[in-house]
Amino acid sequence: MKRAFPTFLAWLFFLVQMAQAAPYRGPFTGLFYGQGRSCWGGLFIGTRTLTWDKQFTPCARTSYTIRERDLHWPFENYDHIVFQLNHVSKACITPIIGLYYYVPASEIGQPEGNTFESDAWVAVGFQTEALYRKFPTRGFMDGSHPVDPGIYVVCGLPFSNRPFPYGVPTNEP
Q1: Are 85 and 97 in contact (CB under 8 A)?
Q2: Domain boundaries, the chain
Q3: Where are the alpha helices (H) located in 51-126, listed in sequence order?
Q4: Start-end of H helices in the chain
Q5: Mean pLDDT throughout 47-56?
């Protein structure tokens, strides 16, 4: 009986550690659907290729390089991954595409923030390196650092399937 309590504490400590978000380093694939005038269409991310089929400036299927990656398991507020398209199609005006995860403001006890009722990914297309570098990752959803939609292509993707690892990995689009 004396030995059971320390074993219980060890298991409890282990389970608490497992419940906290840990860095996620696995593959990131998914299908994300947007709506609205300039965001109608889908963002398809495979293990080696990406397609952003938005209405006016589609980015054709191409290979990509991951420029920045800050993901956790399970996903947390401000998680993101940024892709550099290796070959930019003629109609595509955004050679750098960021995908940012935001938890609803109601869930984190803030009056401002993600206004979607569920967890949401937001795709941001960057036309230049300079715009990518000065993008306010933590401030644009709560309004403290608004972005000019004439400069950035910002698409909320509230009607998306959950990307892998929540769902099944997608095949190449």
Answers
A1: yes
A2: 21-157
A3: 105-108
A4: 4-19, 105-108, 129-133
A5: 91
Q: Give the integer Cα–Cα distance in Å for 72 and 24.
A: 5
Return the biggest CA–CA distance within the chain. 72
Residue located via tokens 């906290």: 20
3-state secondary structure of 18: helix
* pLDDT tens-digit map of 65-103: 999 999 988 888 888 999 999 999 999 999 999 998 877
CA 152 to chain centre: 16
Side chain identity, residue 90: K
Q: Report yes or no: 149 and 155 within 8 Å, Cβ to Cβ.
A: no
Structure tokens at 147: 């972005």
* H/E element, 43: strand 41-45
**Whole-number Å distance between alpha carbons of 163 and 160:** 8
Q: Look up the pTM and report it.
A: 0.75
Q: Look up residue 26 and give its two tokens.
A: 């696995």
